[in-house]
Design a protein that fits this description.
The protein is an alpha/beta fold and about 575 residues long. The protein has 23 helices and 10 strands.
């Protein structure tokens, strides 16, 4: 682990990892190394020119021409420094933004292929943190850090080499101090790596707490619990503060130690130069050269180790991004296609079992539905209704058994083909911050405007949309916030009507709707389900009284099945449920 190795090697490995992470753009950064090297070299030209002038002066050979030559050399060096800096900046400028434009698209594509279970295990805060914190930090810092680290390494090497040119003893003193800095930096880097991970975890925890509080704010305010319910968020803020302060407090002693080492190094260089000159081993010119370099000789390595904090945080960010990308995707290698004839059932579950981790929640589920039939799933909360519906849409892969659509295992067909054949209407509707027209057209992007309008009419939402100031071009708030629950639900049904999939999954859409909207939504759903094979998660038993079959679930098992009249005749679990809901 890098945390164990630490030291300058860790910084270099992190830079190498950044270059590997940015992939196809790494060539631009490596090309920038060349201009960075020459920029570092040219930065020393004015000092060398000054030493040259002083040498001529001490020997009595200073002329106007030599002054002009030195001035021209410095002017040329400044111009070339600007050119090299410009080339370096052009090669690096915008690379971080290009990289993360691609990475965000790749992350979106990856998330689309993850099982829904990943999004119900408290990972929403992690995803939000990765997108809003980790990626943004690397996007804004990576190219600068890479450029600074490379420039600092080049500058340190060049300066150390020049001190050896002045005198081997001066070079040895410089190298000794730099080695001492590197050795004392190792525990600092190790500690920083561990605390950077804690810091990013605290960021994730804070993001989750803020999201949870924001989503529940309407309920919290209605019960006057804004203070009590914010306790978790306040705790997350306190933890974030404590983590950040601890991070800084543990860095300060090492930075202080480095400042002491730089002071000792400068003193040692000065003392060595004086001793060498007194013993005739260092000319006056080289002594002056040493004085000129004295206060900048350690500036490169000093700046290099000031990058430690940013680099360790960056490593933690890279780790967290890699963890999300490492999550296993649902297999999508199917090459078969759903049948068009020769099958008996539109939908069939054969001895299906399913487990969340090690806990099995569905046990030997078997049922079938022919084309055009309605199957209702009823039962207490946690009985497995929603899990069955989600498995049909392949939000997860089953643990055992088979789920077939028109005689073909859904795992053997491409996910895109399965999604073309299934539409879902959720109880909790989500609409995007876009026009109403685009929210409906999402069901079938190639649909004509007339087809979108017709879908809206069938979903009982054409009239209220037309009454809006901008009609179908009205932009709605994220999540449908600017619409009532019933209006948002009807727009989501219009989207499904437009999609026109043969299989419909309904998480009863009228469970929390007022009576007027309920009538409209019932009419819209009747239109949506016409001639379709429908699976309904029923919360109100009377809404599925006409279902072709009702499956009564309890603790992940089908306890009863049949039509309403058949189930009432049994006098079992369904009868008791209906009596309780009467």
């Amino acid at each position: 682990m890098d945390a164990e190795k630490g030291g300058a090697g860790c910084l270099i490995r992190t830079v190498h990892r950044i270059l590997k992470f940015i992939g196809k753009y790494a060539g631009r950064i490596r090309l920038a190394y060349i201009s960075t090297f020459f920029h570092s070299l040219l930065m020393n030209v004015p000092t060398v020119a000054a030493i040259y002038m002083i040498d001529l002066y001490l020997r009595g050979q200073l002329t106007v021409m030599s002054c002009v030559t030195a001035a021209a050399a410095m002017l040329v060096s400044f111009v070339l420094q600007a050119v090299c800096k410009n080339i370096s900046d052009r090669l690096q400028s915008g690379t971080g933004y290009r990289v993360f434009a691609d990475k965000r698209k790749a992350l979106g594509e990856h998330l689309r292929k993850l099982p829904m279970g990943y999004f119900s295990e408290g990972n929403i805060g992690r995803i939000s943190s990765v997108l809003s914190q980790d990626m943004v930090f690397i996007e804004e810092q990576a190219m600068t850090i890479v450029a600074d680290v490379v420039s600092d390494i080049f500058s340190a090497v060049i300066t150390t080499a020049f001190m050896f040119v002045l005198h081997p003893l001066l070079g040895a003193v410089t190298l000794t101090v730099e080695a001492a800095v590197i050795i004392t930096a190792q525990p600092c880097i190790k500690r920083s790596l561990g605390e950077a991970a804690d810091r990013q975890a605290a960021v994730e925890e804070l993001t989750s707490a803020v999201l949870e509080y924001s989503e529940g704010l309407p309920v919290i305010k209605s019960y006057g619990l804004t203070g009590e319910s914010a306790a978790e968020m306040r705790s997350a803020f306190r933890k974030m503060k404590t983590t950040n302060l601890s991070f800084e407090e543990h860095i300060i002693p090492f930075e202080t130690a480095h400042l002491v080492l730089y002071g000792i190094g400068i003193t040692a260089l000065l003392a060595s130069a004086v001793w060498l000159m007194q013993n005739g081993q260092l000319s006056a010119t080289y002594f002056v050269g040493t004085i000129l370099f004295l206060f900048s000789v350690f500036s490169a390595i000093k700046h290099l180790y000031q990058q430690t904090t940013r680099l360790t945080i960056m490593k933690s960010c890279l780790d967290r991004i890699d963890e999300v990308f490492a999550e296993s995707e649902l297999a999508d290698s199917g090459t078969e296609h759903f049948g068009t004839d020769g099958y008996n059932n539109e939908i069939e579950f054969r001895n299906v079992t399913f487990a969340y981790g090690s806990e099995e929640v569905l046990h030997d589920i078997s049922f079938s539905a022919k084309k055009g039939q309605m199957t209702a799933l009823v039962g207490q909360s946690g009985s497995g209704k929603t899990t069955i519906a989600n498995l049909l849409a392949r939000f997860w892969d089953i643990t055992g058994g088979e789920i077939l659509v028109r005689g073909t295992d859904i795992r053997k067909v491409p996910l895109s083909e399965l999604m073309d054949n299934v539409s879902m209407v959720f109880q909790k509707v989500y609409l995007f911050q876009d026009t109403i027209y685009n929210n409906i057209a999402m069901g079938r992007p190639e649909a004509t405007r007339d087809e979108v309008y017709e879908a809206a009419r069938k979903a009982q939402c054409f009239d209220f949309i037309s009454a809006l100031p901008y009609g179908f071009e009205t932009v709605i708030g994220e999540g449908g916030a600017s619409l009532s629950g019933g209006e948002a639900q009807r727009i989501s049904i219009a989207r499904c009507i437009l999609k026109n999939s043969p299989i419909i999954i309904l998480d009863e859409a009228t469970a929390s709707i007022d009576a007027d909207n309920e009538r409209c939504i019932q009419a819209a759903m009747a239109e949506l389900c016409r001639d379709k094979t429908t699976v309904v998660i029923a919360h109100r038993l009377y809404t599925v009284s006409g279902a072709d079959q009702i499956l009564v679930l309890d603790n992940g098992k089908i306890e009863e099945r049949g039509t309403r009249s058949e189930l009432l005749a049994l006098g079992g679990l369904y009868s008791r449920m209906e009596a309780a809901n009467a």
